[in-house]
Amino acid sequence: MVRMALAAALGVVAMVGVAQAETKDCGKCKDIPLLSRYPGSFLVGQEQRAFDEVSLPAGPTIETPDYKRVFSKTEDLEGRVDKLFYHGPKGRSGLEVYANYQEALTAAGFETLYSCKGETPDGCGKSFGYAYNNINPVPGGSMEAGQGIPDLDKPRYTLARLKRAEGDVYLGIVTGDLKFRDVAAVLITVVETKPMEKGLVTIDAAALSKALVAEGKIALYGVYFDTDSAVVKPESKEQLDQVAALLKAEPALKLLVTGHTDSTGDFAHNMKLSGERAAAVVAALVANYGIDPARLTSAGLGSTSPVAPNDTAEGKAKNRRVELVRQ
Fold first, then answer.
1. Among 16, 120, 210, 322, which residue's CB has the most CB atoms within a 10 Å radius?
2. Can you list the alpha helix ranges (DSSP code H) found in the chain?
3. 265 and 180 co-located in one domain
4. Residues 248 and 135 in one domain
5. What CA dihedral angle connects 189, 194, 196 and 201, to 10 degrees?
6. Are 16 and 110 in the same domain?
7. pLDDT band at 326 (very low <50, low <70, confident <90, very high)
């Protein structure tokens, strides 16, 4: 229903006073059901991934001490990702296209989380198109896929969210005028998040004991935290039940609980966060299960001990973990 409503809303708004022009889409590119194109545009680049991670700007660009342009804040998301890059029809400005998308999003019930215009400090920030391409490259199929959109004139950007029971939808929409093509550019990223499936990776007490004897350690993927948080989520209870059962069944057993992150973000911050997460697991075992704190030690190892490459979403997911180490 949401997909149809948004597509219909955009179609109604954009068709007013606009004649449909001929299009030339790239290869197998096609629109997604959630979002129709601005009439007269053609789809020159597209990527679709069933599950991946993507960062969308949630604040203007800033300059780092080493003179790099980065965003002051980002929304880091995981889920189904659709990226689409359109060239608008001749004679239509980026502002006109942007206004139509904005109206369509509002009509479909999306909440604007952040929006900006221009490259001033109180707008999107300097070198917006360049910085955007660094964290969320233009999808393949067009010339811009290789060079990004650093020449984007009068950029406008919106990050919006639609809350749904089956998982929230986030949209990042960039529009502006391509200086050397005399058309508007429309770069859209859609992320359909999914609620966590619970209880899929719980390891029972017997399996924990066997692994600790054989390997000396075991990774727990059934202990959950929100992004950049050290608060143990309620969904972790099933796994913590089994860890507590193991400790009660083996009164002499002592464990080192280690926290691990992927390589995304600042190294020092990840070291601190991983340590806080490990300490939170220890605190939960002590407070909720009556485990003697003398039997548990915590440590944060950040990204220093990966179990998979950090250049894929799957590898990063494996590296974000809590481990039990037999002492």
1. 322
2. 2-15, 94-107, 128-135, 144-147, 205-214, 237-249, 267-289, 313-319
3. no
4. no
5. -80
6. yes
7. very high
- CATH number, domain containing residue 247: 3.30.1330.60
What pLDDT, on a 0 to 100 scale, did the predictor assign at position 195?
Answer: 61
10 lies in some domain? yes
Q: Are 66 and 122 in contact (CB under 8 A)?
A: no
| Domain stop point among 192, 225, 259 | 192
Q: Which amino acid appears at position 72 of this protein?
A: S
8 falls within a domain: yes
Please measure the distance between the N-terminal and C-terminal CA atoms of the chain and give it in whole angstroms. 54
**Residue 11 and residue 57 in one domain:** yes
Q: Could you identify the residue written with the tokens 């965003």?
A: 71
Q: Which runs of E-coded beta strand occur in the chain?
A: 42-57, 61-63, 69-71, 74-87, 111-117, 152-162, 169-178, 183-192, 217-220, 255-260, 296-300, 321-326
Angle at alpha carbon of residue 56, lines to 62 and 236, rounded to 5°: 115
Domain residues for the domain of 126 are: 2-192
Distance CA 319, CA 313 (A): 10
Q: Dump pLDDT digits (tens) for 93-118.
A: 999 999 999 999 999 999 999 999 99
Could you tell me if 220 and 80 lie in one domain?
no
Report whether 108 contacts 5 (CB < 8 A). Answer: yes
Distance in angstroms (rounded) separating the CA atoms of residues 77 and 280: 24
3-state secondary structure of 219: strand
- Provide the pLDDT confidence category of residue 11 given band limits of 50, 70 and 90: very low
As given in the structure block, the two tokens for residue 250 are: 């083996």
- The pLDDT of residue 6 is 58
In sequence order, what are the residues at sequence separation of 6 or more whose Cβ sits closer than 8 angstroms to the Cβ of residue 24?
Answer: 42
User: What tokens appear for 127 in the block?
Assistant: 């070198």
Structural domain count of the chain: 2
Supply 90's token pair. Answer: 């001749």
Q: What is the pLDDT averaged over residues 289-304? A: 97
Going 249 to 251 to 253 to 256, the CA torsion angle's sign is positive
In the block, residue with structure tokens 């089994």: 242
